[in-house]
Amino acid sequence: MASDGVAVLPAARLRLNGAWVVPPLGILAALFFYPLALIIQQSVTTAGGLPDFGSYARVLAGPLFANALLHTLEIALLATTGCLALGFTMALVLTFVPFPGARALSRLIDTFIALPTFLIALALTFIYGSAGIANMSIMQLTGAEEPPIDFLYTVAGVVLAEVTVYTPFVMRPLLAAFSLIETAQIEVASSLGAGAWRIIRRVILPAALPALLAGGSLCLLLTVNEFGIVFFIGAKGVITLPLLVYGKAIQEDDYTAACVIAVVNIALSLSLFLLYRVMVARVDQGQRGA
Question: CA angle at residue 135 from 132 to 136, to 5 degrees?
């Protein structure tokens, strides 16, 4: 059909046969499914290759696994909460409270995404470690014999490092969501007498909820599987699931136990991802209904 002398062409479609599915499936099989199958197989066999389905009961019933699971969940939840709070606040300021250097600061924060996680842990060690800048300065000024700052080698130190690393993963989707909010909505709400907190709660927060869920769930997945920060900080008694896998496989040569813990860690990550998908779907349905 034509309208006003302009021909309307049908939308172009890319026609692919079933053979195009084979290469990506082959890559997934080689890089993901095959190694995963080997891990699962190793978790239910002995060192001699005999079936051993009791390995899960022995490993999961031990106090070391329970302690690692508790620390993993504790650190992940605390770090994700910190990332959400700090990321939301910083994105809010950068978007709605303009100041000189805001764009440069935003770009600087983006660079944290490209940095290896252990570099942040190393930097914090240089600042807050036992022989770090802060401790040495205080000891010289006060004459103290022991480092007064020792939080870095605890759960709090690991959480601080992870919040520093992963906050940009919350800020990026939030900045994108805030850029879509029409300033007219805020101006109308302000003209009607709404204060800053009410505008944030009624206008900005609902628009940012999908971005908060996306960034928060990504932080939760990353912190659950974080290894480098915990390893480099060396917090006393703070053993997480990834660190426990490393210890069992590399230090103790107990590959069966390491694979059992790895399978549990994978299952935990997949469960968190499915929970995220369900939450996002409900938020989307609620926004469409509204």
Answer: 80
